[in-house]
Design a protein that fits this description.
Strand order of the largest sheet: 1-2-4-3-5-6-7-8
CATH architecture: 3-Layer(aba) Sandwich
Structural class: alpha/beta
CATH superfamily: Alpha/Beta hydrolase fold, catalytic domain
Order of helices and strands: HEEEHEHEHHEEHEEEH
CATH class: Alpha Beta
Number of strands: 10
Radius of gyration: 17 Å
Shape: globular
Distance between the termini: 45 Å
Number of helices: 7
Largest sheet: 8 strands, mixed
């Protein structure tokens, strides 16, 4: 009964946010937005076993909303010794999916959600305010591409650049490419991904080698969309999805090392 009552509070707060903001405006977060792992709160906060203030990593879901895979990622990040915040951009807006293309919230709007979540996390005593990173997947990966842009940061009062950003199989658009990056970015994508183009991401990265924050990329041969999430190959939304254990394991190591190096700065 207590769990039901707690969930009702979260649902109420999420609905209030949606009614206040609208689907094309950024969400805002406060203490009432945060819940335990698997709670369904707008921010599910996973804390590591270590005591004291630690870095934090935002987890940004794909076009289908928060899934077990994103929660597995949060548990993985907590196992690395950092806090993980699964940010739900859909349910507070009463959105179920954007997998059929178009609609709100867009990656640009969700980037502003990410800044809002980071602004709130910086108020918590057990989060290091200058060590907040972000990982996004698919639609969330496209959100990361928006969130690393300097002009997007400036558009949100109180926002700061993320310490580091990782985009799994994002929708890259090299023409025109993003302008000036405020954050170091790592893109991880499958060569055989038929939903997000590895070739487009390579073009986007190759055009920015001289940036102050040059993006990096690793393309996994034989891997498709959702290669990190496990499961057998399958068709969904007219695209091939499925896990690739070798690519997934390597991407976990790369992500951990990339974030750890930046959290030390």
């Amino acid at each position: 009964m207590a769990r039901l009552a707690l969930f009702a509070v979260f649902a109420c707060c999420a609905a209030a946010n949606a009614a206040k903001a609208g689907n094309d405006e950024p969400l805002t977060f406060n203490a009432n937005s945060v819940g335990r792992p698997n709670s369904g709160a707008p921010i599910e906060l996973w804390r590591p076993a270590a005591a004291g203030a630690v870095p934090a990593v935002l987890i940004l879901h794909g076009c289908g909303g928060v899934s077990a895979s994103h929660r597995s990622w949060a548990a993985r990040v907590a196992g690395w010794g950092w806090a993980a915040a699964v940010v739900d951009s859909f349910r507070p807006r009463r959105v179920m999916s954007t997998c059929n293309g178009g609609g709100e919230p867009t990656p640009n709007t969700r980037a502003q959600d990410a800044y809002s979540a980071a602004i709130f996390l910086r108020t918590l005593p057990d989060i290091l305010p200058n060590a907040i990173g972000v990982i996004g997947f698919s639609h969330g990966g496209s959100t990361v591409l928006q969130a690393v842009q300097a002009d997007r940061v400036k558009a949100r009062p109180g926002a700061q650049p993320f310490q580091a950003a990782v985009a799994y199989y994002p929708g890259c658009n090299p023409d025109p490419p993003y302008k000036v990056a405020a954050t170091d970015l790592l893109i991880l994508i499958g060569k055989d991904d038929d939903w997000a183009s590895a070739a487009n991401c390579e073009k986007q990265v190759n055009g920015k080698r001289n940036f102050e924050h040059p993006p990096q990329i690793k393309v996994y041969p034989g891997a498709v969309h959702d290669f990190d999430a496990g499961g057998t190959l399958r068709w969904a939304n007219d695209h091939m999805l499925g896990g690739n254990p070798e690519a997934a394991a390597d991407s976990f190591k790369m992500t951990q090392a990339f974030l750890a190096a930046h959290f030390k700065n």
